[in-house]
Amino acid sequence: MMEEKGRENGVAAMKACYRRFDPAAYLQYNYTPPRADFTRKDSIVPWKLACLHRAFTEGDMSGELLVDIGSGPTLYQVMSGCEVFSKVLLTDFLEVNRQELRRWLQDEGQCSLDWTPYLQHVCKLEGRRPSAWTEKAAKLRQVVADILPIDVHCSQPLAPDALPSAGADCLVSCFCLESVSPDLAAFTRALGHIGKLLRPGGHLMLIGALGESYYLAGPGVKIPVVPLNEAQVCTSLKESGYTLIRLEVYTLTQDMRVGVDDVTGVFFAKAKKD
Ligand SMILES: C[S@@+](CC[C@H](N)C(=O)[O-])C[C@H]1O[C@@H](n2cnc3c(N)ncnc32)[C@H](O)[C@@H]1O
């Protein structure tokens, strides 16, 4: 009973931190150069896009439905998957983030970030001309079927009728679970909760921060993060009913440490639900 109360308090404190999340500032901190410098192979964003491109195109994916868990205000994480899956659902806990995504999908301007260089870069990875980015943008707008509220701390993170009863064919989740959980146990529980959304044999692509204890989600908005190491990621995946296919690690160069967090590395895990 006491233990349960403690858990609830930890989760509630994390949710309170997110009241001040500023999508425009978050995008500026993490999704502009040097972290998103497409002229450099050692920049974080091109590394993430290359991992996602490889994982989605190596021929072991099947099915129709891809769900992105904790999308935030970003779209890069579904730019490869939108060519493989015919239906994509974006999800986030915060209405401000869902609104930011809606603005891009409805193509009405006033987006906080221009996703064009991202679309161009993924086209290049796919062996297409960078100018094919307009087709990719149209494809992405066509396959995103909805933007839903989610809470990974609930044993049922989405509304009951949000997914077909068999579950999604694939999940992608980037920098969400470790940055919304009060501790490693909550991170592992959240991994189990999202696993319920995935059909057996379906894939999970998990990207996250290593060694991070906080990040800034706006000026003066410091959000605590569970500092993870590679071994903990592997153990949590196993405990939550996934078989690891591959784990890749990126170590931040000195110039990627721009003062908006204390992250030391990024992991990319591709796993399969047992
Ligand atoms: C660090 S951001 C990651 C955003 C994006 N996926 C990316 O790759 O940059 C963490 C996201 O988790 C969302 N979030 C906060 N609490 C959550 C919860 N309980 N369940 C699901 N998502 C949550 C936040 O709104 C935020 O968009």
TrEMBL record:
Top-level lineage group: Eukaryota
Entry's Gene Ontology cellular component terms: cytosol
Protein keywords: Methyltransferase, S-adenosyl-L-methionine, Transferase
InterPro entries: NNMT_TEMT_trans, SAM-dependent_MTases_sf
Gene3D superfamilies, A to Z: Vaccinia Virus protein VP39
Gene Ontology MF term list: phenylethanolamine N-methyltransferase activity
Signal peptide residue numbers: none
Swiss-Prot/TrEMBL GO biological process terms: methylation
Annotated residues for binding of S-adenosyl-L-methionine: 26, 31, 70-71, 76, 92, 97, 151-152
TM segment ranges: none
PANTHER family from the UniProt entry: NNMT/PNMT/TEMT FAMILY MEMBER, PHENYLETHANOLAMINE N-METHYLTRANSFERASE
Family of this protein: Belongs to the class I-like SAM-binding methyltransferase superfamily. NNMT/PNMT/TEMT family.
Protein name per its UniProtKB record: Phenylethanolamine N-methyltransferase
Species in which this protein is naturally found: Oreochromis aureus
